[in-house]
Design goal:
Number of helices: 7
Distance between the termini: 115 Å
Largest sheet: none
Order of helices and strands: HHHHHHH
Number of domains: 2
Shape: rod-shaped
Structural class: mainly alpha
């Protein structure tokens, strides 16, 4: 083993001597050319390494942008889906829980006549508590315009007594109905 180490050391020394001799034997121009070649090789390898790193950064940035875009797209689609479902449900609730719609359905199904319909519409505007339970809702939202639209649609069919009762109970009922 010692002998092996000794041989390696001898070989190393011989290589150093050989390299020194080559350097001494080279002319100044040859040394400059050799150095320039080595510099060119080092700088080109550095450029290649830098290019590879910049390519990796570009790939990373592109991947991050695509991932962010995909995430935003998914979030928007889920948000819109929830909004559409909420709108559909709120529309269903508003249609079902709207007392005007309940009354109109009863009138259309001939469960109540036009005079009763007009009285119930008046009660919606003036005294909600006097409305029959089957037409009441938990949280009523009644639009005056909607009620007056319904009254104007049945106004010609109402009896004179009901017209008089509506005129006495609701100020400007005739003006609003005729304006419709």
């Amino acid at each position: 083993m010692i002998q092996l180490l000794w041989q390696k050391q001898i070989l190393f020394k011989e290589e150093l001597i050989l390299k020194r001799n080559i350097s001494k034997n080279m002319s100044r121009e040859q040394i400059i050319a050799s150095m320039a070649k080595k510099l060119a090789e080092n700088s080109s390898s550095e450029i290649i390494v830098k290019k590879k790193l910049s390519d990796k950064y570009i790939y990373f940035i592109v991947a991050a942008v695509l991932l962010a875009g995909l995430s935003i797209g998914i979030a928007i689609s889920f948000n819109n889906k929830g909004t559409i479902e909420e709108n559909e449900e709120s529309e269903k609730v508003s249609r079902i829980d709207n007392p005007v719609v309940k009354l109109k359905n009863a009138y259309d199904d001939k469960m109540i006549n036009e005079n009763q319909y007009a009285i119930y519409l008046k009660d919606l505007l003036i005294r909600y508590d006097s409305l029959p339970e089957k037409y009441k809702v938990i949280s009523p939202v009644v639009s005056d315009k909607e009620v007056f639209d319904e009254l104007s649609a049945i106004w010609p069919d109402l009896s004179n007594n009901i017209r008089l009762e509506l005129t006495n109970a609701i100020p400007d009922v005739e003006n609003r109905i005729l304006a419709e």
